[in-house]
Design goal:
heterodimer; A: two-stranded antiparallel sheet; 7 strands; B: alpha+beta; six-stranded antiparallel sheet; globular; transport (chain A)
Amino acid sequence: MIKAILIFNNHGKPRLAKFFTHYNEDEQQQIIRETFHLVSKRDDNVCNFLEGGTLIGGADYRLVYRHYATLYFVFCVDSSESELGILDLIQVFVETLDKCFENVCELDLIFHIDKVHYILGELVMGGMVLETNMTEILTRIEEQNKIEKQEAGISAAPARAAAAVKNINLPNISTSNIHLPNLPSFK
Amino acid sequence: MPAVRGEGMRGLAVFISDIRNCKSKEAEVKRINKELANIRSKFKGDKTLDGYQKKKYVCKLLFIFLLGHDIDFGHMEAVNLLSSNRYTEKQIGYLFISVLVNENSDMMRLVTENLKTDLSSRNPININLALHCIANIGSKAMAEALGGEIPKLLVSSETIDQVKQSSSLCLLRLYRTSPEAIPKGDWQNRVIHLLNDQHMGVVTAASSLIHDLALTSTDDYKLAVGLSVSRLSRIVTSSYTDLQDYTYYFVPAPWLAVKLLRLLQLFPPPDDPAVRGRLNECLETILNKAQEPPKSKKVQHSNSKNAVLFEAINLIIHHDSEPNLLVRACNQLGQFLQHRETNLRYLALESMCHLASSEFSREAVKKHLETVVNALKTERDVSVRQRAVDLLYAMCDKSNADEIVGEMLDYLETADYSIREEMVLKVAILSEKFAVDYTWYVDTILNLIRIAGDYVSEEVWYRVIQIVINREDVQGYAAKTVFEALQAPACHENMVKVGGYILGEFGNLIAGDPRSNPLVQFNLLHSKFHLCSASTRGLLLSTYIKFINLFPEIKPTIQEVLKNDNQLRNADAELQQRAVEYLKLSVISSADILATVLEEMPPFPERESSLLAKLKKKTGEAAGTNDEKEAGKEKKEKKAQPLPAAIEINNVGESSTDEVAAAPPSLSMDLLGLDTTPASQPTVTSLFETPAVPAVNNVGLFTNPPPAANGGLLDVFDPSPVASDTGALTPGAEENFKKFICKNNGVLFENDLLQIGVKGEYRTNLGRLGLFYGNKTSFQFSNFSSTVSCPAELQPLLKITAEPVGSVVEAGAQVQQMVQLECVQEFEEAPILHVKFSTSANQEEAERSGSGWGSGGTGTMQFINLKLPVMISNFFSGAAMTSDEFFTRWKQLSLPQQEAQNIFQATTSMDTEADKSKLVGFGLTLLTDVDPNPDNFVGAGIIHTQEAKIGCLLRLEPSKNAKMYRLTLRTSKQLVSKRLCELLSSQF
């Protein structure tokens, strides 16, 4: 089972934290820090698995992680999961994000945290893999978007109008894209 | 597809940008607090917020929470969002709840109400939202409130695929949290058939669910084997175009294949030859595919292909029945060991560890020794090196121990700090386990201390000393080697400890050589003295007093050292006391007395190496609770008070020094872990506890039980045999006692001289024991006596009369003694059997036989003190009852004090038949068809005492996967439940 899914950037700033076992706020932050500490000191081309830190359950749990440009995606899993399978799942997750956000970057995760949660919810549920077929996942996200648009059409029209008028420029922060195809090619 | 972004909330975006623009942590906190205040006032304000606003604020709170700030409001607003009829509002409400709300919150009741409504909604989207929320929180309360609904959804024919998928996983989560909350029923069978479902997503989810359901009752889900195999076969043999969207980088449905292979690992190899054949075909196909050229250069392709391959190999290892497949698996892993992908090398090393334990592939694994050693030396990643260490440990046997241990020692010099301690333990265990020649063992351990002294735990050096003491052939060599090792200018403190101990015991063996004459030995040790910690100094002081005994010629030199103010007035009370006592001992006692007190250590009883336990603990530690560590800490704090030095003279324990020192002097044998002190044992007078220098006359080193003790030192050394009976249990007594928990007849004690057999018969609260004493020697035992005593607490509870026996046992003869028992009331302790006799055997033989403190002379007196195997469970009679009766009574005994439960690691092979016979031997009637899980044992019995009859109910639940047992006992008496549970726990 997957115990936790964490995304943080190269500086350890959390971008997503999803725990499937209950921890209180403090513990959650400590786990994120500990995991960041464990993962960030590793070279980029060492193996993608390591034993979990003490807070998350120690050697009985594995951290399976991938590092994309500015972000670390870390899944903490127990021994009942296949490490390589989880590694692929991370890839599916990122590819899905990429499709949904068109060239996803760290900023997308920051500004659309709710959406990221929903996308993740279509992949993993209660700590177990729910769906791995990307087409299927995208269809479901698409359905959600449709409903959202319909609902927004009715109620959010005034708000959108106001937004359009006030359309100020958000401070422009340069963040490089996640660079999806950035994986070391095989052979 | 259109981007998800776009329809964002502007207020949220602005807020996030603000935060990101904050230059300092303080500014950020300030901005957040401002926002929190703003949201709070909005929530509290009179103006009703519309859905959009609520959504926006909830999103802000989520963001703030992620940054690590506690959110203590907004819960109610989130719950209100749940009942909105807009999807997006509901959705964000559920998100907030599953991320932020504690499962014990008061709010949960309201949430559960909403969940119920949504579950019964006609709209699958709402149902799915609810299912997600339940699965992500998965609390016990939810399982109880909603556990009945989910199975219905899952198997209903009207449910759409998407909901089926979610409800499988939702049910799985609730089942994990609280299996008893999920009603049993027809759905269980129907779930198995989901493996045949058209929709691959449903099959994937269902296979996860079935895996966990079958975990506890494999038999009920046997049907899943055939279905999984055929499903797997269809996946494996399909071309990558068949499964369309479920093909991932040219690999057909890798996740599902992995899940199915995992599921099959719960079951033994299929009985049906057709199914078995088909499965083997699948496994072969998977192995074959690994050899095919990759269809894509992408790492994702090889990852998913290998994920399936590794799982197939795990299944092959699990079945452990097809030598052909096992060898192929091993070769495949061998290839991976040299693969350029680090991930594969890591996994290959890990899987090989499992292969190494199969007899079919053990030899094949050993062929890769060189590669593994190479991995240990060259891998850049410490987690891979760690796996290499594990594999070396697993593949080690007599044939390659020399090489493996050598390589590990080599590597230790440069090993990562994080794995050193574990490696040290592993080296120590391997070198002991596979030592053909014990000189090699001694060399290895001394090397170990030299190379990685800091990581050598107490257990390691205790163990080397135990082995040296038990093996006469290696003692001289050990003394010589350790002497040489100590000559190094800088040697580790652990080396000094080992050196001090071994030279103290066996220094005489090398004293003949002028290069290591007594004075040289002493000077060498004493040159290290000042650099050592207090505990090592204490040990060295003990060595010095032993030297006085071994080498009377250097007595004055040593006395000078002891007299030195550095010792006699040392600020450390422990050292001061040792110095004072040893000095006095050396001054006032004769050579004979000294020789008796400081006699060579008797052999330690053979038992499992404490190192293994340590290793298990170390590897298990991380997983477990902190309780153990806490307990350890407490223990350490306790030891602070100064303790009598003399006690420790002859002791190196497996127990840590504090436990050692805590034992009363007369129980010196107790180091070995015999923890029961009979109640008749007089407690040690507290003379020792005063750190002040004791007056010479009452250095009560070995206070004796009255009337023998007059407080004087010399009394202790009175050669009369009576005085040297310490009353302590003979080593092994505790273990032997345990052998009788599940049977009434057997051998209670045996050494070179004497064998004691026991035969017991019990009826209601009465019992009769026959004790048989067999003289194994060719000479007569005289002054034979055997008596039974009860600890004070036991006396009113158990009436016991032993008939007297004759005082002579002829060579080779057997005498019998009858003991009558009557159980008055439930009891815990065991009566003690005291056997003594004198033999005309030679000194040495008597010494070996165990009661170490026996004094010299021809008629050596032997003392054996054993726990008589009489326990409350002997007064059992079985009770048969029906399932209903059982459960009625079980429920009647529901007070917490009536129940005793223990969850423990299995120490046996968990064989069902063996477990059964143990329980029957314990005295219970086993009840079948009571527990819904056929693996569990349920039993009932009645304990008869004069005062009452006590009904006892038992449930034993083995978990073969976890290698654990859970034992539950319910009786009307707290003490009985507790005692029975203790007794029985030691048997599995």
